[in-house]
Amino acid sequence: MQYTNKYESPLGNILLAADDEGLTGLWFEGQKYFAEKLEPVHSLEKTPILSQAAEWLDIYFSGKNPDFTPPLHIMGRNFQRRAWNLLLKIPYGQTTTYGALAKDLEIKTARPVGVALAHNPILIIIPCHRVIGSDGSLTGYSAGIFRKEKLLALEKNMKNLK
């Protein structure tokens, strides 16, 4: 069974989803692939995992790097999970490229990486916003480039203040 709750962020409303194992979804309302991994039958409740995710987001949007990660239950195809797990290794305030991830995944082109990242079910916590084009451009973000830009700016500004 999945449980959901809403979170009001400075960048728009977020839908959080979790099961008994961990967070299964974090989507901005209106984004591409919104609630793609959400089961048709779910319950609007406040669970400990959803509370932890909200606490993580409170810390993050206050400009700090949260020192914990809520339990995650990452659901997807094997390649997607491998790509998303690589994202968890990108340090706060830093970026990598689609090409670098493709190399780490031992594939020849970056396109499959971009496709996998577009379907990331747990935005921000699994930080696909930290992946940029090889020329430094802000390409691709299912929740909108304007959000990607703001998330990167938040992390850069707060990192520089430390």
* CATH-defined topology of the largest domain: Arc Repressor Mutant, subunit A
Q: Report the average pLDDT across residues.
A: 94
| CATH class categorisation of the largest domain | Mainly Alpha
Strand content: 15-25%
In the CATH hierarchy, the architecture of the largest domain is: Orthogonal Bundle
Question: Strand order across the biggest sheet?
Answer: 3-2-1-4
Question: Any idea what the CATH superfamily of the largest domain is called?
Answer: Winged helix-like DNA-binding domain superfamily/Winged helix DNA-binding domain
Topology at a glance:
Blueprint: E1 2-9, E2 12-18, E3 23-28, E4 42-44, H1 48-61, H2 78-87, E5 96-97, H3 98-104, H4 111-118, E6 131-132, H5 145-161
Parallel strand pairs: 1-4, 5-6
Antiparallel strand pairs: 1-2, 2-3
Can you describe this structure?
With 162 residues, the protein is an alpha/beta fold. The protein has two domains: 2-61, Methylated DNA-protein cysteine methyltransferase domain (Double Stranded RNA Binding Domain, 2-Layer Sandwich); 78-161, Winged helix-like DNA-binding domain superfamily/Winged helix DNA-binding domain (Arc Repressor Mutant, subunit A, Orthogonal Bundle). It is built from five helices and six strands; from the N terminus they run E-E-E-E-H-H-E-H-H-E-H. A four-stranded mixed β-sheet has the order 3-2-1-4, covered by helices on one side. Strands 5-6 form a two-stranded parallel ribbon. A hairpin with a 4-residue loop joins strand 2 (12-18) and strand 3 (23-28). The longest helix is centred in the C-terminal third of the chain and has 17 residues, at 145-161. The chain is globular. The N and C termini lie far apart (41 Å). The model has no long low-confidence stretch (mean pLDDT 94).
